[in-house]
Give the backbone structure.
Amino acid sequence: MPPLALYVHLPWCERKCPYCDFNSHALDAPVPEADYLQALSADLAAEQHHTAGRPVTSIFIGGGTPSLFSPRAIGEILEAIDGTLGMSTDVEITLEANPGSAEATRFAGYHAAGVNRLSIGVQSFNDHHLKALGRIHDGREACNAIEAARRAGFERINGDLMFGLPGQNPEQAVADIDTLLELGLYHVSHYELTLEPNTVFHARPPELPDPDTRWEMQLACRERLERAGLQRYEISAWASPGQACRHNLNYWRFGDYAAIGAGAHGKLTLPGEAGVWRYHKHRIPQRYMALAGEAARNGWRRLAAEDLRFEFMLNALRLPEGFDESLFRERTGLDPSCIRGELAALAKDGLMECLEDDIRRWRPTGRGLDLLNELQGRFLPEAA
Amino acid sequence: MKHIRNFSIIAHIDHGKSTLADRFIQLCEGLSTREMSEQVLDSMDLERERGITIKAQSVSLQYKAKDGQEYQLNFIDTPGHVDFSYEVSRSLYACEGALLVVDAAQGVEAQSVANCYTAVEQGLEVIPVLNKIDLPAADPERVKAEIEEIIGLEADETIGVSAKTGENVDQVLEQLVNQVPPPKGDPDAPLKALIIDSWFDNFVGVVSLVRVMDGSLTRGDRIKVMSTERSHGVTELGIFSPKRHAKDTLKTGEVGYVIAGIKDIDGAPVGDTLTHEKRPCAERIPGFREVKPRVFAGLFPVDSSDYEDFRDALQKLRLNDAALHYEPEVSDALGFGFRCGFLGMLHMEIVQERLEREYRINLITTAPTVVYEVLTVDGETQPVDNPSHLPAVNKIDEIREPIIEANILVPQEFVGPVITLCEEKRGQQKNMHYHGKQVQLTYELPLSEVVLDFFDRLKSVSRGFASFEYDFKRFQAANLVKLDVLINGDRVDALSTIVHRDDAFHRGKELCERMKDIIPRQMFEVAIQAAIGSHIIARSTVKALRKNVTAKCYGGDVTRKRKLLEKQKEGKRRMKSVGKVDIPQEAFLAVLQVNKD
């Protein structure tokens, strides 16, 4: 059985950002911590039926803005997890946090509650750009938040940065990275701002830098991160050795992940020949809390062979290190011969390379990573 | 017979023919107000949208005139576009009179002039009518002067009307009754009836609109179609009032419909003569000719699995459109499709739109081309309607292109740019006349230039004021070459065109530039070249795609990413892959759009 991770979704934000298409809901009252915790605990019990006794090796508490929850509540959630699914001894526990001054005061509490990795949604240190993104914090608060996290004892901190922001030039994009590095962070998630459907930005698009400038930005940032000794271990994640996020790596290596919380997506391998299953939890928080437990599970379906093949590649192709054919066989139960044709064609176009060792290892080339959508698209199941 | 008046309306698009016809129907109470939809006569959606008439239609109205007598007014609607001028001439032949409707603000336009001449030549009484006199910009005196000078009609008594408000429309009907002569014809002679138009009805087969010239036609009669020599029994006949209204007999001079179990539109061609099987008339009504397509284009389904549906759709359209020709064509680049022949560009657009709209077939159309005549070194003459079928250069003695005579009417202030345009399009000036504010220009032009973009350019250099009509003249030798387009070294047959050697360099260059903008960046560099034979005359490059990556982490939700990838894939599916290059549909029409400002 593959290793098991757990995703916990806490769906509230103080305010919805105009670019965000995640399942997040603006708060108009205090967070209903007690009710939500109760629902999560019923949800955990439901998950326990399907995890075949595996303890979780990583937990990711995402949102929304999880740092709206008190350290005590986070502590209770972690206790509930330990009491049901169980945790491995070296479990990685990440919490997503907003870099606001209010949150920073809780960081020590989260650390004490057992959280050992913090992911801070910095996005930028430039006040103009933060404003354009509709963020409620400013650059100074972001710096303070990172320093507070370090003071609170966190050794593993991720900073989320976005580039290609309205009015941004390549120098400014690199300056954001410089600031992050100066603050001593060893993990950066570096995303380009994209205008997603069902967002304010999609309806009223801001003026973005032109494609040539965005490309220049990306190259300049990449160069800066490499110069700082960070390694690109995933399409948009950079880390120094030992700092890579194990929870995310588990996604990319097509491991299992249980999911609790409104709108959380899970993927589980069931014992025996039962195959790989996907599901998600009801996404509207109030309804999720009312359903509580197994009833909140939606879209429970077994993946067909062509879906397994596609989804494995969708994830694995994001890794510059690539994947072994043996991993493909292990995670999907399929014979690797069903991907070799496409992979060989991509290799011919210089987008993939095959390392002929004892085990066959495939990895995308630099060019392949730049054209990741093309690579992934090759493995799409034929439309019915 | 002396109480019958057969008439047409000659009018330029937008000058208000249909609205006026609707007023007539209302005045004669052919339909209740409730039954009058916006415009009754233009029954196809497309016709209504574009404000043009494609199929001839008719309506028979009972009109009680001021003299106390009741008259049967038969209005025969005519197609209003140069592509359908043959159908117009047949409609006019069935009439004794015509109303020339002119927009009192815009004045006389070339298409009306041409149709008016046809009417006068055929001995029709032409009554000018000024429409839209309610418009503030109306200038009746100026337009009357134009009618006298350009067309040569007496315009003193011209009535000004507003079809929109109904003002003075009754006076037009009085003029019709008083000035248009009743039909002539011999009621006792053998039957001679003109087929004005035919269309296909799913329930009864071919319905023909006819004008009885001599004799009479009764239900049950055995009739003969003179061009095919085939005989049929008349199962139903009658008039449109404008609703279909069955009768027992159509008498001399009357206009009505005939249904005779004919299954195929070619069985009752427009312009042909109907007579009785037993007692046939001596000769056919003159002027019958087979309609020949002048413009050809390849039509290919974007999705090759639509091929069968496409063929069925063409078959169905053909049932109603004798002028539409098609035969299978195979293109290296576009796969299986059909080479289709059309009367002109409007006809092509209409067919294309109907296929996409009514039959929901997504099509790629190659640039339209005219029919060339090629004289080979063996002394053979062969028609070529597809550039990729042009014989090898060393087999060609001479290429001849179709030449038309164009008549253009343009306000004085735009004469300069119009002449410049005609010269640029290799035109030869034949005539130039000043008529008050308007100038009448006659040019001989290669049809291929007209097909290219002449009409759009003419409209743009004259701010929409110039109008034109044309007629095929002859084939004439010209220095023509085949211009090929190569994409990453592969010749794309569907992008080949035949052009004048003097234009080839310029065309090739512009084509490469346009293609560069149309073809999206791909994973590799795409080289676009224009060539004459093996000689490359222009090139451009589509740089390789630098990135295509959206890499958000959705907490394990793969569905959104999948949707995005599927959307990208669907976008690609709408393009044609030539070699490894994805080419969007509009590239195949870009050949047409060079030279545009």
User: Anything to note?
Assistant: Residues 211-227 of chain A form the longest helix (17 residues).
